[in-house]
Amino acid sequence: MSIPPVVVTAARLGWRWQWQRLMGGLGPADGAGNYIRPTSDPLTPPALNPEELLQRSAGQRPMLVIGRSCPWAHRTWLVHQLRHLHDSVTLVMARADHNAGRWALTPAWEECETLLELYRHCGAPPSYRATVPVLVDPKTRTLLGNDSAPLVDLLNRWPQRGSAPELAPPESTDKIESWQQLLQPAVNDGVYRCGFARNQAAYDRAEAALFAALGAVEQSLESNGPWLCGASLTLADVRLFPTLIRWELVYAPLFGCSRRPLWHYPNLWDWRQRLYALPGVADTCDGDAWRHDYFGALFPLNPGGIVPAGPNLSTLVNSKAASG
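Below the sequence we write its predicted structure tokens.
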């Protein structure tokens, strides 16, 4: 039996009204329907004593709390791996609790079973959003930072034993900042502006800016590669990688970032493979966890809760870009 058109229209209007309410909780938007990332008061990392940090026992070392699926946390995890900070910064993995809409800590830390409890336990005011990444000093029970941009800078300068790559050499400072100004809004946040857009016009604006930025990266790598700032890997590469490594598994199918596949950008494709192949980087990439958390947690974008099959990450980073 066919459904009367008036019923279909009413159902469509009702669902859209509910969808707008749900999207308002997922991510706010301005009057034109453009996604606006929620803000909170960022923590300013305090001055730290390098020698004191290196002398601490294992239980007193600063803790970097991250979540596998969070691209912002992924940046800090990459610096942790690339600079070999395992002996000076303890890595703590939070788990996305889809039903409660929060980060859970398993096992609990000082009886804190959620990230929110950890924030409060460390004296964070109610205005602070309990987000990852966050750097915690267990010795003083204080939060040392919770914004990925300054945190990767801090971790790049973190005291350590032995040698490690310098990801922000002085001669690349201006280039790193220039890439940050382009890629943060257009790509890193741009995929969310596509996925969380409230209307077609807002999506079109975000999508156009996203692919224009990818085109700029492709041209730069072709003429000035192999890395974004030239001959050496820098924080600019670290900040872009978490977004592009999730491309085929999450952002193209779920957020509508599908105009052109990444293999249409051969230099960018090779750049991603090159970074993935660096020691320790593959350990930070878990495609199954990304699909499970994005498709399972973002109910307004995937109300059925079905986690689709996707390409194996290893096949994407070990294959050559197609021609044409």
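The domain at 170-317 is CATH 1.20.1050.10 (Glutathione S-transferase Yfyf (Class Pi); Chain A, domain 2).
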